[in-house]
Amino acid sequence: MRKDMVKDYKTRTQMIHGGTRRSQYNEVSEAIFLTQGFVYDSAEQAEQRFLKSQPDEFIYARYGNPTVAMFEDRIAALEGAQDAFATASGMAAVNGALMSCLKAGDHVVAARALFGSCLYILQDILGRFGVDVTFVDGVDLDAWQAAIRPETKVCFFETISNPTLEVIDIRAVSELAHKVGALVIVDNVFATPVYSRAFELGADVVVYSATKHIDGQGRTLGGVILGSQEFIRGTVEPYMKHTGGSMSPFTAWVMLKSLETIELRVRAQVASAEALAEALYDHPKLESVMYPGHASHPQNALVQSDLGKGGTVVSFVVKGGKDAAFTLLNGLNVAVISNNLGDAKSIATHPATTTHQRLPQQEKDLLGIADGLIRFSVGLEDPQDIIDDVLGALENIA
Ligand SMILES: *Cc1c(COP(=O)(O)O)cnc(C)c1O
Fold first, then answer.
1. 152-189: per-residue pLDDT in tens?
2. 187: CA distance to ligand 1 center in Å?
3. Helix (H) or strand (E) holding 5
4. How many CB atoms lie within 10 A of CB 57?
5. What 3-state DSSP class applies to 383?
6. Domain ends where: 259, 292, 320?
7. Does 292 share its domain with 388?
8. Which residues line ligand 1 (CB under 6 A)?
9. pTM reported for the whole predicted model
10. Do 234 and 105 share a domain, yes or no?
11. Residues 247 and 286 grouped into a single domain
12. How far is the CA of 384 from the centre of ligand 1 (A)?
């Protein structure tokens, strides 16, 4: 079932059938077209295809591939986007979305609380090419308003920030950005594609690290840029296909099969995250618990109205700093210590010494990355086992 045929069905149905292209053998499970090139029937056909290829006419896998196209159509259906371009990793998506539309002299406003590599692109790379970047506290709308100026081309932020789980108001930032004609690009990993309403709320471009919930089983890196057909085909595709960050057909196949179960997986993980957050609130060994889906979260009203749910990650600060945090991590039996998220396996991370180790102390303080902070990505194990695992490990803290 192609994109245009599937759109009347509900999301779960679209995730099973959307984008499917069958070969002449009529296989049930989608084929991996593990080919980098395509044969033309004639010299004239080759000439025509390079002149202007139609949808589903392929030239070279860096430009497009049938398995990759199936993934792009299926994820576009999930997000409610006109089009999508699949990338080799989440960072290829973030880089591609930004670099494809910015030029020297442009101005970008970005939320300060960002995934480390996103921060690197905005702080270190863009400046080298004459793009001026202003960082703001993403939840402070006055700060966005003050920072946006007539030459602002892009506003960039993570809908739910990593690792302290602040929630940014897509609708409000989009209104401010659109007044000066700036594009709103959101990195939506923590909100998850299942609960995203980013386009409806005003975002122009949505990027995902597909490595997270889309694969959701820890196998392969990938990413995707979603937006209008004009932006994806007119701006993103030329940049991506010539700079080499396209997704491989094998990766696309893994991601495509994962989309069949993403709704079930993410809904179950969110339900377990809610239960874990509830079990941890007011725990005597904890200084604080951050979960956007909990009533005590500062942006919970926004989560209720815009996302519906608070995602699959719970962050908390243990009393006793780094030593206590390490005691907790080393006492976990079900959850693993690692730095991915959105996985079927529950994963605990100590941001201060791993993902955010490089940040100067002053920056860590600004972002709330305390020595006792744990980022806990809730997996698909039985929720009671997850809760017992964390509560049990907390008992090890003196
Ligand atoms: C993981 C992640 C990325 C980068 O994705 P990769 O697939 O690792 O390249 C970007 N943004 C956010 C919010 C992430 O969690």
1. 999 999 999 999 999 999 999 999 999 999 999 999 99
2. 8
3. helix 3-6
4. 13
5. helix
6. 259
7. yes
8. 89-91, 94, 115, 117-118, 158, 162, 187, 189, 209, 211-212, 221, 223
9. 0.97
10. yes
11. no
12. 29
